[in-house]
Amino acid sequence: MTPIRSVLRILMAGALAAAAATGALAQDKPVVKVLVGFPPGTGNDNLARMYGEALQEALGVTAVIENKPGAGGQIAAQALKQATPQSNSLLFALDHQVVMLPLITKNPGFDVKKDMVPVGRIVNFFTCLAVPGNSPVKDLAGYIEQVRKSPTDGNVGIPAPGSQPHFLTYLLAQKYGVTLNAVPYKGWAPALVDLVGGHVPAGIGPCNDLTEYKKAGKVRVLAVASDKRYAAMPDVPTFGEYGFKMPADSFIGVYAAANMNSELLKQITDATKKMFDSPKTVAKFASTQMEPAYASPEELRRIVERNTEFWGEQVRKSNFQAQ
């Protein structure tokens, strides 16, 4: 064999070995798809991107965020059910997707228990009742009195029909014996615009989107739907303090497709738990004005069952017609 042929053989062998190693690495470190049911730039989307970055750092995978907005997150949840095993799909889910949609939709197109595997809760977030900053209403008692005097002030802007704010409006009306009308918008963002502009007398939606407006005096927050005060608004009383008994806090959690490879699922589940050991990662999650609050897969399953029981009762009592 000539020296040139020996060199070529060595180079070819090296190239084949490198290709094999690259192939093995690609298999060991797959692409993970993170489905988000809301548009880019929303709080859910921003948090999902932080989670994806943390997952990449922990496992060396490539996390790809795929936004599938529409129908209150239903399209993304359906996409998780339809995902192939090779797509390694996760759903970054609001509780609306796994609690409310099965309650308010005749055929949601997915089954939380059969099609989704809980990975862990990432954050709690809070729901607030607020009025425009120039409203004469100072507190919840004043709001109820105002509605009694002026029924048109009972119009309450909410993110969507069939959402938790919708049924929280119903609960308020029942507790105080007043007429409140849930005014559904196509998302919280346009409802918030009308609330800040004084075009709707009250609104119920995510507190984290209200913090800056509250500081600027453009809205007045009357109560937080929780059993503990929201850290960003320590001066605002909770509905629990007013005698409301309800599941505390809404949440965002991660779910895997039921057909995900079991070894990869375990790696992702373990990595998700370990994220909360990192002060840096927890601080990033907290920067969204939501509360980092890890819960294990089994804990998340119980939370969903408890919330489904509570809100299912409100859906039935309110005579809401499933679509």
Helix content: 40-55%
Beta strand %:
15-25%
- Strands across the major sheet, in which order? 2-1-3-10-4-11
User: What would you call the structural class?
Assistant: alpha/beta
Tally of separate helices: 12
Distance between the termini: 78 Å
Q: Average pLDDT across residues?
A: 91
Strand/helix succession? HEHEHEHHEEHEHEHEHEEHHEH
Flag low-confidence runs: 1-26
Shape: globular
Number of strands: 11
SSE blueprint:
Blueprint: H1 3-28, E1 31-36, H2 43-59, E2 62-67, H3 74-82, E3 89-94, H4 95-104, H5 112-115, E4 116-125, E5 127-132, H6 140-149, E6 155-158, H7 164-176, E7 181-184, H8 188-196, E8 202-206, H9 211-215, E9 219-224, E10 250-257, H10 262-275, H11 279-286, E11 291-295, H12 297-317
Parallel strand pairs: 1-2, 1-3, 6-7, 6-8
Antiparallel strand pairs: 3-10, 4-10, 4-11, 5-8, 5-9
Helix pairs in contact: 2-10, 4-12
Describe the structure.
- The protein is α/β, with parallel strands linked by helices.
- It has helices at 3-28, 43-59, 74-82, 95-104, 112-115, 140-149, 164-176, 188-196, 211-215, 262-275, 279-286, 297-317, and strands spanning 31-36, 62-67, 89-94, 116-125, 127-132, 155-158, 181-184, 202-206, 219-224, 250-257, 291-295.
- The strands form two sheets. It has a six-stranded mixed sheet, sandwiched between helices. The protein has a five-stranded mixed sheet with strand order 7-6-8-5-9, sandwiched between helices.
- Helix 2 packs across helix 10 (262-275) and helix 4 (95-104) runs parallel beside helix 12 (297-317).
